[in-house]
Design goal:
This protein is elongated. A nine-stranded antiparallel β-sheet has the order 2-3-16-5-14-7-8-9-10, with no helix packed on it. Strands 25-24-23-22-29-20-33 form a seven-stranded antiparallel β-sheet. Strands 4-15-6-11-12-13 form a six-stranded antiparallel β-sheet, with no helix packed on it. It is built from one helix and 34 strands. The protein is about 5% helix and about 45% strand. The protein folds into two domains: about 190 residues, Jelly Rolls; about 170 residues, Jelly Rolls (Sandwich). By secondary structure, it is mainly beta. InterPro entries: ConA-like_dom_sf, GAS-SHBG-PROS, Laminin_G.
Length: about 400
Amino acid sequence: MAVFWKAITGGLLLALLGWRAEGQENRAGKKEVSGRSTLNLGQERDIWRPLIHTAVNLSEISSIKSTFQFRTFDPEGAIFYGDTKGGDDWFVLSLKDGLPLMQISKEDMLVSVTGGPKLNDGKWHTLEVSNQGKFVVLEVDGSSGLVVGMQSKKEELPISSELRLALGGVLIGPEKLIVQFEPQMDGCVREGSWLNLSVPWEAVTEELWPCYQNVRPGSYFSGMGFAVFNTSVFPIKADDGVTFELWGDLTNMDGTIMSIKAPEQQLMFAIVANKNTKEVTLTFGVEQFTMTDAFERLVITFQTDLMQVIQVGDESKTTRFPISPTDQPAYLSAWAEGHLAFGGLLGEGEDNTGSQFLTGCLERIQVQARDLDLDFAVKHSSISSHSCPE
């Protein structure tokens, strides 16, 4: 099976000083781009659907390697896919836990291998994939990353079909994968050299998101929407309580940072930042608390009889609010049946729209001491889960 590439850049969606994928429409009205374009793999679409794809007859292939540059802070997602025989033989390169993961199906063989250096460090890396006889080789920055050996007992017949290539998704059913992974990738690819081919690639959308030139880790909210979780995915016992931790300069943000609400109940909790006044206001039921001091991290703990707020900075500050017995049922039911939103205020309507959406970067979010991945939320397409523009 022949292999493919070259690409890179991490970043996300709007456009600061970044690169765009240049393209034009083909006769069918589909946008075509060059394989060397800089592409933001995080663009909104069906999660398994590739961002761009192309096809070529195997007889036109003169090279058995592909190179590209790649950048991301995302630990998991689909990068590159190729297949022959209409998808019977296929290859997938992705990340899982930050490590390269190659999965290959060929004739009677299914193989997966994970290893090499972690690639979700936000730096540009040059990747090369080549087919060397019975081996598929992945090189990272000029050094060997992964080597997969494959030999079938069946006689290999000449292949006279087309080769399909895709970035940011797969062209087979994900149930065929040996190792399942979350496909959404907040990352960028550039400078692709795909089997030395010059054929154009077809994009799934008319406008392609740019990649920021410089990025840093975090979740970026552009002020256009929010991310919502069901609180039931974070089960708690009544006596254990629940803890949230938010990293970042909240006083430099603008809009609703976080809110909690159960259906047909009053808003339980909200944090709203005002960039102009440098104030962060916390609302819990009828209680309201305004913070004006700069801090690096905010820790909020709900327990049966109190809510505790810790502002962590040069001088940490702790504030406690009692929870009365009459408020306890509302607090517990809101957590058992409600919604947790980041970047917006949960409202009364079915569309859950409320006050001003957040503009800013949350460097890190934890719930119950575990990092929260916004890829698992129902979120607006403008939110980038793992990177913020510098």
